[in-house]
Amino acid sequence: xxxxxxxxxxxxxxxxxxxxxxxxxxxxxxxxxxxxxxxxxxxxxxxxxxxxxxxxxxxxxxxxxxxxxxxxxxxxxxxxxxxxxxxxxxxxxxxxxxxxxxxxxxxxxxxxxxxxxxxxxxxxxxxxxxxxxxxxxxxxxxxxxxxxxxxxxxxxxxxxxxxxxxxxxxxxxxxxxxxxxxxxxxxxxxxxxxxxxxxxxxxxxxxxxxxxxxxxxxxxxxxxxxxxxxxxxxxxxxxxxxxxxxxxxxxxxxxxxxxxxxxxxxxxxxxxxxxxxxxxxxxxxxxxxxxxxxxxxxxxxxxxxxxxxxxxxxxxxxxxxxxxxxxxxxxxxxxxxxxxx
Length: 341
Fold this sequence. Notes:
This protein is α+β, with helices and mostly antiparallel strands. The protein has helices at residues 32-44, 75-82, 206-221, 230-233, 249-252, 263-271, 277-280, 285-289, 296-308, 319-340; strands at residues 12-16, 20-28, 49-58, 87-89, 95-102, 105-108, 118-120, 126-130, 135-146, 148-149, 164-165, 168-169, 173-185, 188-200. The chain folds into 3 domains: 12-48 and 172-224, Gyrase A, domain 2, CATH 3.30.1360; 50-151 and 160-165, RNA Polymerase Alpha Subunit, Chain A, domain 2 (Beta Complex); 245-340, 5' to 3' exonuclease, C-terminal subdomain (DNA polymerase, domain 1).
């Protein structure tokens, strides 16, 4: 006999702005409102993708403890101010922002020179004060990512030595609260209502962040679904991570050069005979680290890039898909060789 249990049928939006959302869902069985609330809060504060400044170059500065003539703040404080600028990255490509200003006056986030690829969401963030005649020129690298990365993790070998890697908080979610209140179904009043509030920096809608968090939780739970339900949930075509590998064809078909990896990481992959992303995702971390000159930084860089495509290492491609890719690209390479002759 299948016993029925209460669960929410829809999400109610009580309030929604670009920076704040208040949502309710009911009814939950007793204890399950808190179970779901804790899980959603955890994911919202750690795994939502966003953009952040990862490296900064200032003319005439080689390290963060320098002082710039004519600028009131030292470099360390300028960097701290730059890291607070909320921004939205439209697309997956790494972007470079610039500032070029002459004093006197205040340098604000609105002075950052950008294009349609990056939006500065608050143009009034204070960066520094300048004396008369002072000059300030800087470049900032903006990348996509998840969670928080310390400066060492943001070190990029492809950048010039005068770039200073900085700590980066990619998460657009600033705060999450959840509350559990009683809920009624018919005459029964011992059910729960989940009220969840989400604050963001404005780069992503609170509603979208909640939807992404729900998807991430679902993907983590796929592995626990009973084998009898595999066809229903399409788990037979998914790797252990819960990623539907067959739905990622547009990324799997790309070359590893298209990932924007550093020269060092790219050379290591080429040495392993990895030319396409569908070949890369089948490699394990152990295989990569055991190859010649392949270090942890290159591994972290590759994993970070794959996460942007919702992919990972150690995936298992269905045999039919693997053969299809290999046959397709053998033909493609042969055609290229014929054209070159």
